[in-house]
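ok so i was messing around last nite and threw this chain in just to see what happens. nothing serious, just curious
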Amino acid sequence: MTTPPDDSAGKPAEQPKQRPTRDSLQGERAPGNASGGRRRVVIDSQASRRAGGPGGPGGPGGPPPAGGQPPRRQRRGRRRRGVYDEEAESRPSQSNVAVSNVIRVNSGSTVKDVAEYLDVRVPEIIVKLMALGEMGTQTQTLSDETILVLAEELGKEVEIVHADEETIAEPVFHDADADLVERPPVVTIMGHVDHGKTSLLDAIRETQVAAGEAGGITQHIGAYQVHHGQHAVTFIDTPGHEAFTAMRARGAKVTDLAVIVVAADDGVKPQTAEAVDHAKEAGVPMIVAINKIDKEGADPTRVRGEMGQLGLQPVEWGGDTDFVDVSAKSRVGLDELLDTIVAQAELMELRANPDAPASGTVIESKLDAGRGPVVTVLIVRGTLEIGDAVVAGANWGRIRAMHDFLGNRVNQAFPGQPVEILGFDRVPEAGEWMRVVDHERRAKQLASERANRLKTEQLGRQRSKRVTLENIFGRDLQELNLVLKSDVAGSLEAIEDEIAKLPQDEISVNVIRRAVGAVTESDVMLAAASDAVILAFNVRPVGDARAIAEREGVEIRSYAVIYRAIEELRSAMQGMLVPDEVEDSVGSAEIRQIFRASKVGTIAGSHVTEGKITRGGKVRLVRDGTVIYTGQIESLRRINEDAREVAAGFDCGIVLKDYADVKEGDILEAYATRQVERELG
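result:
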């Protein structure tokens, strides 16, 4: 039997034994082309991953598939689909965009981004900018005002979306009923300043916190947990001072139940009404605790009537709001208040999934000299454990340690529990939504994307504040540069809110740096370069910062209570205002006869009718009711002698400086000007 010749040497199936090179690929000849011409070879980098494809398992140029074994998995790059899917939860829903024709544009977008949003070419945007008198490039950041003008020029309707607006809405979770367990209620203590909120909470948890607050005023949010029988209750104490509006609003948003504390001897005050409004806006039920009932002048009935005017009717009067009379000093009614809170919480059926990835809200944050960023977090869902990778806004970290409100070290934190955590790279903003992610690399990526977004938005704001020749000559605007340093992020936020409320029509307050922690050398050098003042709230200079400040002439003002800082800042702004010039009448004289002297000039013989005439003083010459000269009295004589001043009822000779056209019957009005300090509006 004749064996057919073995021509398998030319089969492509045996080619993988020899790794193809560039020369061998270029030297391949086309099938049927005996003339030796070269053919074009297209290299498919994905061919080896497709079964049956050229170079792949079972395909030409690839090995045969092994029997019963899956093909070897090639190393692949990291998929990025999860980035967009996960971020879609925190971004505003785009469904409304499709219904309406409003285009949502991120604040701080570049020229290229705006072109993509508006569906136009980049050169068209640049041409529009040139028509508006501004030169732009693809990577140039545009201000919000410029984006709105461009959209109007192109006939588009846009809405500017800021970074803080995207994080207001917390994600909504859908857990199965079988996964949900009961969690402690979160109760926020709210009310007017000095109505006994911290003292009441102090009496409940039997610790002395109020003694540690500056002036007895709560400067930041404190989160605590107490046990009443078989139930645990989480309390959040918020400041009552008017400067801490944002902190009270934040406390109302993370709570399940609000306790409005009103002093029985003081009644409803502005911050009381504001606290009620915050609770109503957040949609949380309220309990009114009438404190200081054992104090002289206490009238709980009057307080009930005043609260009724705010829409909170007592249950005993036929309303639906529970009122409890308490006394933090004598500890009367505390058990009744806790019973009311627990009963209200049971009706609300508060539950959470402890087995899900942990997430929660940053209640407070600060920078500790020995421990680094310290963040107080209220866990809303899931269980937070040591070693978890977390992200909060533009900050990320890995949990290194956790402590409860008593300072005890814990390994886990459950829903409804406040916990102090260590491990963030920087101090996150109070109110940020914190969540656990798969790994540290993922946390870094999300934080970096958020930081870039905030940076571009800040660049857009800076471009909108850039000074031009028009507004330099059009207004006299002075700037007061500040460097703000605080112990906690919440106090920093309150100071900025109060600064924003100050009138800045003529004096603009520019915060060039805001940070949590002690005053450092870099803060002082920045203040020296910018002619800024450093406001330190509950922090002090460290290292050589004070010595450098004295050498550079930088003023560091330290404060423990926020309203004193605002009062001094307001006084400093008033000192920068240009004083008003006020005119005071000194006297008047009537010209009755004209004398001329060759050496002196024209002498106005006058009779002083009112006040006095002073040599060298300012004077106006009035003729027939019209001011024809404003100047100075150069010479004043009486009875051939120089006089310093002449009183009413006497005659004198007056020579005006650089003016000789005086006539009989003219009136000379002497006046003086003085500067009066102005006050901010």
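not much to say yet. The radius of gyration is 39 Å.
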